[in-house]
């Protein structure tokens, strides 16, 4: 009979465990539901201060419940509640403005500086591709069609007359169409850049090929213009946006190479940690690349059609490149404290 | 039973809070994640179609004038829908897209620290090669009618390789998860339900010590599940089985009352043992 009395006592104490703390859990749940929907600013000071207290009390209830109670639903409820609270309270998030500020002041230039080795390789590869494209077309005109698909060439080929080639360079399209064209260029280029990045996953090989091909395209195009004595003019036409765009694509390729090489050769870290590290640097770079491509799209879609003077085109192109280089490699903000 | 338990254990990962409590997070299984993705995909497609229809109506209404800004808005919106949908939702407070939220899962950092925006971006940019690239290869093939079988097969193998990647690793990670240092965990919103042992019974049952010793914690949890489900047939079957085991005759109409009473007594018995330091895991343990 004493066993029965003992059982009843346990049952009683567990029931009061629940009834005494239930109000706290409910309050925590309601508070969490509110902060998950709206900014913590909407909470009163008391509520804000009670949040961590309620979280700890829920956590301690969970420990007690796990050790003493066999009510599966109760333990499950507390586990889910504590997990939600944990994710909210320890998911330390900064305000949007702070995050954007940090991105432009530290994260973006830092990520690019971190990628300097891959970036230089990517630039070198672009030039190698350029040289190869130029040389191939100079050797044999037939290569031009092989390198640049006719749909992309838009009437430009080794046999086109000087007038046709010049027309492409200086005829601004119908000005009504410009901003739409810029938007199209931007979205298209970003998609290509994301591809160049994501393909890096396959041990960087596709990224390298893509960058080489990109340079090759450029070299082939240059050759036919140089052959007609329009090399300087084409340079202006390309550089107004090209310095930004080619740099951005080189960076995207570099980000791709980083993830590919880090997965292949993780060094002292485990493969998982190395991949995660590389992925974060690369992601920051990719956001930057998107911004650069937005600039390039605007320059290409609007600037190039409106500005037809070679000098101005070169000046803008060179200016943009200097700007990017200074921002990435010279601009350093000293960080105080632990952020 | 044994295999089921092993499978359940393998998806649970420790997450020790700074307070020293292990929250034992449960990884979302592949099926749930696929369902969440499909839901998001449908949302994206439907939104894209709606945006396009609105744009076309706008175009008809404007008679060609002002088509330019409309085109810009359309192209930018579609671009954002494709690239920013997942990023914006996962970078939000709940770290889940509407599809994930519906199924009660969310993205979390593998390290247990807060999820940062660059992680979210990294994991979602990889969708480009996981889904959109193979999709466009396959669509492009079928559109051109150029049945280049080899490249279609290549595209399919690629798509399957990446789509099934989560099945080939312990942590159910996509390639994007691998590169971002994230995983997808279950974070359901559960309501606090009634304590079954507090239920008042119309009829009183008495059990002897031997009758209460017949089962352990595993069976108690199963019994709790059955009682909460309130399925008459299941209740009757379980009541008969338990009655046979402990040697009691149960009227079919009494099965719910009997099970509730037995559950209450059994739990009190096992909880008391727990307090005294013996954890009777299941009925085989003496």
Strand order of the largest sheet of chain B: 1-2
Overall, the morphology of chain B is elongated
Instruction: Work out the helicity level of chain A.
Output: over 70%
Q: Which class do the helix and strand fractions of chain B yield? A: mainly alpha
Main sheet makeup of chain A: none
How would you sum up this structure, described in words?
The complex is a heterodimer of chains A (339) and B (286). By secondary structure, chain A is mainly alpha-helical. Chain A has 2 domains: 14-93, no CATH class; 97-330, no CATH class. Chain A has helices spanning 2-37, 45-68, 72-90, 96-114, 116-139, 142-147, 150-153, 162-170, 178-198, 205-227, 231-264, 271-306, 310-330. The longest helix of chain A has 36 residues, at 2-37. Chain B is mainly α. In chain B, helix 2 packs antiparallel against helix 3, helix 3 (67-90) crosses helix 5 (117-125) and helix 6 packs antiparallel against helix 7. At the A-B interface, helix 1, helix 2, helix 3, helix 9 and helix 12 of A face helix 3, helix 5, helix 6, helix 8 and helix 10 of B.
Short overview:
The complex is a heterodimer of chains A (about 350) and B (about 290). With about 350 residues, chain A is mostly helical.
Topology of this protein?
The complex is a heterodimer of chains A (about 350) and B (about 290).
Chain A: H1 2-37, H2 45-68, H3 72-90, H4 96-114, H5 116-139, H6 142-147, H7 150-153, H8 162-170, H9 178-198, H10 205-227, H11 231-264, H12 271-306, H13 310-330
Chain B: H1 2-10, E1 12-13, E2 25-26, H2 30-62, H3 67-90, H4 98-102, E3 105-109, H5 117-125, H6 127-144, H7 149-163, H8 175-180, E4 182-186, H9 209-212, H10 217-229, H11 232-246, H12 255-275
Antiparallel strand pairs in B: 1-2, 3-4
Helix pairs in contact in B: 2-3, 3-5, 6-7, 10-12, 11-12
